[in-house]
Amino acid sequence: MPTMAIISCKIMQDEIIWILENDTEIEEIIVADNDNTGEFVEKLDKANIHYSTLPLENIPVVEVENTPNRYTVLIYLMELGLHRNPKELKTKIYETVDVLAPYSSGILLFYGLCGNVLGNIEKDFAANSLSCPVHILKDNKERIVDDCIGATVGGTENYLKILKNVSDAGTYLFTPMYSKGWRELLDINSRLHGDPDKALKMMKKTHEMVGYKRVAKINTGLTYTENFDDAIKEFAEIFDFEILEFDNGNQKIFEDCYLKMKNEIKT
User: Fold this and answer.
1) How far is C-alpha 89 from the geometric centre of its chain's CA atoms?
2) Total domains, the chain
3) Same domain, 36 and 121
4) With contact defined as beta carbons under 8 Å apart, do 106 and 135 qualify?
5) 136 and 36 share a domain?
6) 39 lies in which domain range?
7) Residue 53: partners with Cβ closer than 8 Å, 6 or more residues away
């Protein structure tokens, strides 16, 4: 039975859950056990999605077997803080692809260019003759998305429209998971020798210097992350930001890329 591995940033865990919940052909869901899975498996439980959590050494190696229309999905979530260092992000993702290849019929990355470090990942692994295909999130014109926001709003064109609308002032763009993970992403809790309050004050001063004034709520239509409105309001209050709202979020790119990989590993 083929296995599709999804390597993903924690920011896009809601999109993964939506896919799992809406695909009736999945025979088994395996979540690779690591420090990034706690919130994800809680959401799987709330959605009544059945899964197994296994350390990598216990995950079965892929065997060639003809099982029409049934397959396994293996989820591997990566640390959010890797985005602070694009070179380290690239290194960790490439290493993870190598590690997961024996367990996979195909590997789908829920990532974008992410600081222009992942633009060649498909070519790099194709040239290395990896045992399975590797794909990354792309829009309908086969362009790799810029980042998680670009994927969430449907690709480069829609992303540019949003950026143009907020170009008069610095603006954070928050999806539901981004609104819950910004402290981890910005390393607030460990900055300045573990003084998050002092770090927030310094961050606020930096915002004033560079002209950040707003946070934009990107509605995705997904409700797996609770209290989205409250999290946005909290962030806005901390930094005295105005709140904007966009309804551009959707699952089209995630779904299209998933279905493409699904068809590829089943043939």
Assistant:
1) 13
2) 2
3) yes
4) yes
5) yes
6) 3-148+251-266
7) 30, 31, 33, 37, 41
CA-based nearest residue to 117, from 146, 158, 156: 146
The reply to whether the predicted model has a pTM over 0.90 is yes
Give me the residue label for tokens 């396994």. 72
Are 261 and 267 spatial neighbours (Cβ–Cβ below 8 Å)?
no
- In a shared domain, residues 48 and 170: no
Q: What is the pLDDT along the chain (267 residues), one digit of tens a residue?
A: 899 999 999 999 999 999 999 999 999 999 999 999 999 999 999 999 999 999 988 998 886 655 667 899 999 999 988 888 899 999 999 999 999 999 999 999 999 999 899 999 999 999 887 889 999 999 999 999 999 999 999 999 999 999 999 999 999 999 999 999 888 877 765 554 567 778 788 888 888 888 999 999 999 999 999 999 999 999 999 999 999 999 989 999 999 999 999 999 987
Query: What's the CATH number where 102 sits?
Result: 3.40.50
Q: Are residues 162 and 40 in the same domain?
A: no
What are the structure tokens assigned to 247, written together?
A: 């309804």
CA 194 remoteness from chain centre:
27
Q: Are both 10 and 103 inside the same structural domain?
A: yes
Q: Which amino acid, one-letter code, is at 124?
A: D
Write out the H or E segment, with its range, that includes residue 3. strand 3-9
Residues 144 and 159 occupy one common structural domain: no
Same domain for 129 and 9: yes
